[in-house]
From TrEMBL:
InterPro entries: MoCofactor_Util/Proc (IPR052698), NAD(P)-bd_dom_sf (IPR036291), XdhC_CoxI (IPR003777), XdhC_Rossmann_dom (IPR027051). Transmembrane segments: none annotated. The lineage of its organism: Bacteria, Pseudomonadati, Pseudomonadota, Betaproteobacteria, Burkholderiales. Gene3D superfamilies: NAD(P)-binding Rossmann-like Domain. It comes from the Bacteria. It comes from Piscinibacter gummiphilus. This is Cytochrome oxidase I.
């Protein structure tokens, strides 16, 4: 599944290349509950076609209706707010009196959009800064993601490649988890040097590599958009991946196994591989949210939920206390 932001930007670029009037809407602020996070984007063409989302659908419908009666024309960017009153919140489907503010940009420049689409398609991270007074856009490369910022008359948003998931082990659980991750918009790579395990791999869209896990993690150069999950139950493979993953910038590192196994793993990684206590605190294990999972699909749901919770900085992502002493 393509990165949603990239799909929006590509369609918007195509509309503008065809000299069709179009609008780019960006969520710049929210109060209370909001269906979409800050930084979310959607594009709207003059004939009412929509790609992307800034809400559950009602705000998109309102924007279409507004611009159907008031044709788009070249104008500076402007802010609009939805859900100021309880009636408006109910009308636009915003939960519990939520409010959101959008930045609307009329007819963004096609050449700048083309440069942005090309950069994101090639896996580069880009900051797009829009000057509110006249809509002028400056795009610069970034080394790490940044949140949306509004300051000094400029709105800056970060665009980049899809989030990545690296799975160690090509078993049934990995198949379930890879399928869920692909559906959730992650690029998925599966590492398994064991021929007998990888021969049965059947998840289209997930790359399968055969190198040793530590080499694969190192070559991947994990960043703040990368998560790594060890699923083999084989310490020789899982530990190799974890010793590199826990030293990286990956936003999530997890490992399958019981609490007893996690204690042994932590002892091995600190005693034999030199990982620090601070690095070990980054390890999610036993992996996944505690929802009583028993089957591979259920366990995959628990892992995917925890990965998304950590990605979205939800405090409840801490699923269980870390094991600190041997289980007897």
């Amino acid at each position: 599944m393509e990165n949603l932001d990239l799909a929006v930007l590509r369609q918007l670029r195509d509309w503008r290349r065809a000299e069709r009037h179009a609008l780019l809407a960006t969520v710049v602020r929210t109060w209370g509950s909001s269906p979409r996070p800050v930084g979310s984007i959607m594009a709207l063409s003059a004939d009412g076609a929509v790609v992307g989302s800034v809400s559950g659908g009602c705000i998109e419908d309102d924007l279409v209706e507004r611009h159907r009666h008031h044709p788009m024309a070249e104008a500076p960017p402007r802010f609009v707010t939805y859900g100021v009153t309880a009636d408006e919140a109910h009308r636009f489907g915003l939960p519990c009196g939520g409010t959101l503010e959008l930045l609307l940009e009329h007819d963004p420049d096609a050449d700048a959009l083309d440069d942005l689409v090309e950069a994101v398609s090639q896996g580069r991270l880009v900051r797009r800064a829009v000057r509110l007074s006249d809509g002028a856009v400056v795009q610069q490369p970034l080394h790490r993601p940044e949140g949306l910022r509004v300051a000094d008359g400029v709105v800056s948003n970060t665009f980049g490649p899809a989030y990545r998931m690296l799975l160690i082990g090509a078993g049934q659980l990995a198949e379930c988890l890879a399928t869920m991750a692909l559906f959730s918009g992650f690029d998925v790579t599966v590492c398994d040097p064991r021929e007998a395990h990888r021969d049965a791999w059947s998840v289209a869209g997930a790359a399968l590599v055969t190198g040793m896990p530590d080499d694969v993690v190192t070559a991947m150069r994990p960043d703040a958009r990368t998560c790594i999950v060890a699923l083999t139950h084989d310490p020789k493979l899982d530990d190799l991946a974890l010793m590199e993953a826990l030293r990286s910038e990956a936003f999530y590192v997890g490992a399958i196994g019981s609490r007893r196994n996690q204690v042994s793993r932590r002892e091995r990684l600190t005693a034999h591989f030199g990982l620090t206590e601070a690095q070990m605190r980054r390890l999610h294990g036993p992996v996944g949210l505690d929802i009583g999972s028993r089957t591979p699909p259920e366990i995959a749901v628990s892992i995917m939920a925890e990965v998304i919770a950590v990605k979205n900085a939800v405090a409840a992502a801490v699923s269980r206390p870390a094991p600190v002493a041997a289980v007897t």
